[in-house]
Amino acid sequence: AQRVTQPEKLLSVFKGAPVELKCNYSYSGSPELFWYVQYSRQRLQLLLRHISRESIKGFTADLNKGETSFHLKKPFAQEEDSAMYYCALTMDTGRRALTFGSGTRLQVQP
Amino acid sequence: DTGVSQDPRHKITKRGQNVTFRCDPISEHNRLYWYRQTLGQGPEFLTYFQNEAQLEKSRLLSDRFSAERPKGSFSTLEIQRTEQGDSAMYLCASSRGLREQYFGPGTRLTVT
Questions:
Q1: A34-47: per-residue pLDDT in tens?
Q2: Chain A residue closest in CA terms to B50
Q3: Rg (chain B; Cα; Å)
Q4: A97·B33 Cβ contact <8 A
Q5: A50 conformational bin, left if phi > 0, alpha if psi -120 to 50, beta if neither
Q6: Residue A109 pLDDT > 90
Q7: Measured between alpha carbons, how far is A86 from A45 in angstroms, rounded to an integer?
């Protein structure tokens, strides 16, 4: 069965510091990986997906199949980045149901 | 289009009562998903529909849970004989085919 692990429940950094939110997964096939973000009092929304290879709001994530990781990175954190971040995967089938990690709360202090 | 909507936003019920939640997806989205999120956890998949067909149900979806999407538009999730362990945020998401899932605001259920 597929599984997503986010080892940190809370990550606190100062504004301008680099950020790395860790995500590891287990799945025997070829998954599609996502990062979702939930800002305070807002709904869950897609931040980025590995197949698009985009940089959204300065965030990037690279899929490392050897280490089965999909860490989220940003070189300079901003206060508005404070939110709950969830890593998720979906299987390489038509099913598309998402398997989420337990989330990491990012706090960016001024 | 204001996105996926869910009703009610909050529901408090007594143990043993039945509750029903509604989800209105983004128009023209043929896929609709239900997830459940408990405190400190990420959302967990419950079930999904493609048009009006329910294609998969998670093991989390006990016999007390039933979901419908009668005309391939809105969906309802009913929980019969609620238990305290059913207290959670129930999230709905919709997508056009295999594309991005858009989430609703959720319905927070509290079973007393």
A1: 999 999 999 999 99
A2: A95
A3: 13
A4: yes
A5: alpha
A6: yes
A7: 10
Tokens of B105: 């605001």
CA gap B48, B101 in Å, rounded: 12
Cβ of B104 within 8 Å of Cβ of A95? The answer is no
B41 neighbourhood in chain A, CB within 8 Å: 102-103
Residue A11 burial (10 A CB sphere; 0-12, 13-18, 19+): middle
The CATH homologous superfamily to which domain A1-38+59-86+98-110 belongs is Immunoglobulins (2.60.40.10)
Nearest-by-Cβ selection for B42 from A86, A95, A96: A86
* A49 CB-near residues (< 8 Å, 6+ apart): A32, A33, A34, A35, B100
Q: Do A44 and B48 touch (CB under 8 A)?
A: no
In the A/B pair of chains, how many CB contacts fall below 8 A?
Answer: 49
